[in-house]
Amino acid sequence: MNQKTLVEIIVNNEVKLSAQFIDNVTTRELISRMPFTIKMDNLYSREMCHRYGHGGLPVDDAKNRGYQIGDISYWPPMGSLVFLYEQNGEVFEQQPIGHIDSDVSFFNGVKSAEVTFQVKD
């Protein structure tokens, strides 16, 4: 199945982003929890991250791969849900979740944020 789910991401109750989640076991689990709000922290000047902890979400396609700016991924070793907003060419183990269609460059100036996820009508 190659179905995509439209998700609205709201940062600090003010910035609205539009994302497409691909269909896999990780995204199905996240969608089943929506709406939800988590705190995300800026790490490595390239990503916003929330750590669920190892085993926090199920995976079925985690492998080493690169990324594009705007990708949403899950890093299984630390159970990290991440938004990738800067490119450094790194390849790392990840389970793809989806892609933010909006401009994500503003994350560069954000230390931490309350982030709400909800399925778009």
UniProtKB/TrEMBL annotation:
Q: Where is the Cyclophilin-like domain?
A: 13-118
Give a Pfam family name: Cyclophil_like2
What is the name of this protein?
A: Cyclophilin-like domain-containing protein
The species this protein was found in: Limosilactobacillus gastricus DSM 16045
